[in-house]
């Protein structure tokens, strides 16, 4: 068999495999909110057989299989954002590079379903002591880190409250930076999210027994500001919660470092870690995590 024929056979095999990949639950009602957080691994990494060009279709396939209303991505470069925008024409995307606030460098790019949401406002801030300064760094962070956000009106929700959708990526080395970033996120969420119901996605590079986790989800004035959707959707003390796969679909033991969090007034219907793989590999070195939410009807001002 010549090389051209072999390539055609491989492409056909991958196409057929994608067709039989397990799909997510498609029984969600119109008001349910499907949320996904996905670290897609920066596309210029020297990953060999797991290079972006060899897995980008798999990334897009897992996103479309879940069909999220809100999608937060991490480690997203401009050409990856453009690829996903082409594959997801029903979505509006927002994202800037972390170095200067332009198109250079990794983004915490977020996507929302255009027909469902009206965009009220959007912006970005940096995880530093000067959050409004693009590219700023503080504490012991090894890299510039940021958060992107959008304030939305959900045309399908019975609640009159808008949604603040935030997406972030904490530093992978700086221990103090992760703690301070969690504290900053809570402060910013309170400021930007006044009158809103908040959804937060991200790669937090910290486990659920960590100080950053407690700083984000800990109680203040007797009540938690943020709630961990996976802990609510899967309340049992389960093993096998790893969300960093290292491109291996068999990885289960390890820390759950990718989270979807909400403020009050959300009901968690389901929360999952998508470990779908093909030939033993995953679409990224992180598993995408998902949550199905219901925005509660307005009961207070």
UniProtKB/TrEMBL annotation:
Q: Which GO terms describe its molecular function?
A: 3'-5'-RNA exonuclease activity; endonuclease activity
Name by which UniProt lists this protein: Endonuclease/Exonuclease/phosphatase family protein
Asked if the keyword Hydrolase belongs to this entry, the reply reads yes
**Signal peptide region:** 1-30
PANTHER family, sorted: CARBON CATABOLITE REPRESSOR PROTEIN 4, ENDONUCLEASE_EXONUCLEASE_PHOSPHATASE DOMAIN-CONTAINING PROTEIN
**Residue ranges of domain Endonuclease/exonuclease/phosphatase in the record:** 36-286
The record's section on InterPro entries has: CCR4/nocturin_mRNA_transcr, Endo/exonu/phosph_ase_sf, Endo/exonuclease/phosphatase
List the Gene3D superfamilies hit by this protein, alphabetically.
Endonuclease/exonuclease/phosphatase (3.60.10.10)
**Keywords, sorted A to Z:** Endonuclease, Exonuclease, Hydrolase, Nuclease, Signal
Any Pfam family hit? Exo_endo_phos
Which SUPFAM superfamilies does the annotation name?
DNase I-like
Its source organism is Novipirellula herctigrandis
């Amino acid at each position: 068999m010549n090389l051209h024929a072999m390539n055609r056979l491989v492409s056909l095999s991958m196409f057929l495999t994608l067709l039989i990949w397990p799909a997510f639950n498609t029984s969600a009602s119109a008001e349910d909110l499907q949320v996904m957080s996905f670290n897609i691994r920066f596309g210029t990494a020297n990953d060999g057989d797991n290079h972006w060009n060899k897995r980008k279709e798999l990334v897009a396939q897992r996103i479309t299989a879940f069909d999220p209303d809100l999608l937060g991505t991490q480690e997203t470069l401009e050409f990856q954002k453009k690829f996903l925008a082409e594959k997801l024409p029903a979505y509006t995307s927002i994202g800037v590079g972390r170095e200067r606030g332009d198109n250079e460098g990794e983004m915490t790019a977020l996507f929302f379903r255009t027909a469902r949401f009206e965009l009220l406002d959007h912006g970005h801030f940096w995880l530093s002591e000067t959050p409004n300064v693009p590219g700023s760094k503080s504490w012991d962070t090894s890299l510039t880190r940021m958060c992107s956000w959008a304030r939305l009106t959900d045309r399908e929700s019975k609640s009159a409250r808008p949604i603040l959708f935030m997406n972030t990526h904490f530093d992978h080395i700086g221990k103090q930076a992760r703690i301070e970033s969690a504290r900053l996120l809570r402060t910013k969420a309170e400021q930007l999210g006044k009158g809103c119901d908040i959804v937060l996605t991200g790669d937090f590079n910290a486990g659920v027994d960590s100080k950053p986790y407690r700083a984000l989800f800990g109680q203040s004035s007797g009540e938690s500001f943020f709630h961990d959707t996976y802990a609510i959707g899967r309340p049992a003390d389960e093993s096998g919660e790893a969300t960093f796969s290292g491109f291996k679909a068999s990885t289960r033991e390890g820390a759950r470092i990718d989270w979807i969090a909400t403020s009050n007034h959300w009901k968690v219907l389901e929360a999952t870690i998508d470990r779908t793989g093909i030939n033993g590999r995953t679409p990224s070195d992180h598993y995408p995590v998902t949550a199905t939410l219901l925005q509660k009807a307005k009961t207070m001002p």
